[in-house]
Write a structure and sequence with these properties.
Order of helices and strands: EEEEE
CATH class: Mainly Beta
Organism: Candidatus Gottesmanbacteria bacterium RIFCSPHIGHO2_02_FULL_40_13
Protein name: Lysine biosynthesis protein LysW
Number of helices: 0
Structural class: mainly beta
Radius of gyration: 12 Å
Shape: elongated
Bound molecules: zinc ion
Strand content: 35-45%
CATH topology: Rubrerythrin, domain 2
Number of domains: 1
CATH architecture: Single Sheet
InterPro entries: LysW
Largest sheet: 5 strands, mixed
Number of strands: 5
Pfam families: Zn_ribbon_LysW
Distance between the termini: 42 Å
C-alpha cells in the first residue's frame, strides 16, 4: 500500500493491512498522518495531516 503525503508530496509506504483512522508517519517529513481511506483495488491510501497531540497539558 502507498499513499501521498499532503505535507511534502512524498510517497508513503504502509503495511497492506493498514486501517482507516490509523496514524502513520511520513518517512520524508516525519509528520503524523491519519489514514482517511483505503482502496484495496488500487493499493492506495488517502491520508490527511493528523492533529498534533504533543501539547503539554500541564498542571
Ligand atoms: Zn511528508
Amino acid at each position: 500500500m502507498q499513499g501521498q503525503c499532503p505535507v511534502c508530496d512524498g510517497t508513503i509506504q504502509v503495511v497492506d493491512n493498514v486501517e482507516i483512522s490509523e496514524v502513520i508517519k511520513c518517512q520524508d517529513c516525519q509528520n503524523s498522518l491519519e489514514v482517511m481511506a483505503v482502496d484495496k483495488d488500487s493499493q492506495a491510501i488517502t491520508v490527511k495531516e493528523a492533529p498534533k497531540v504533543e501539547e503539554d497539558w500541564g498542571e
